[in-house]
Amino acid sequence: MPKIKTSRTKKAPKGWDHIEPTLSELQIKLRDVENEPIEGKRKPEVLWPIYKIHHQMSRYIYDLYYKKKEISRELYEFCLREKWADAALIAKWKKGGYEKLCCLQCIQKGDSAFGKGCICRVPKAQMEEEKVVECVKCGCKGCASGD
Fold it and tell me: InterPro entries, from UniProt (predicted)?
């Protein structure tokens, strides 16, 4: 006879009730975006709002811990462990030149056509003309830290 699996609920650390309403609201927005119809959109455009909300959730937790210092390390690590925020993206935000990075796809050189970073990573001052730049992968309009 197979073992019965019991769900072990991990107790949230102190301060979770402070950030949980915002994270739940963003989670509801994410579900609404996932259920939207996709007719008339290009294939990558369907994922852009999902990336945007994912970025908002990660940035919210990052700001609370590193900028405002309103949450404890225990709560921060709990959020990373429970996948409320992207640990790899937050690790990049802590490095110089990546403070405004929108997603990890934009810095992966193997995914681009010419083996370089994404067009949204180029500072607007270095662009040839004043044209609107939009990333094909995530829809970002520019996430270079030099802007």
Answer: BUD31
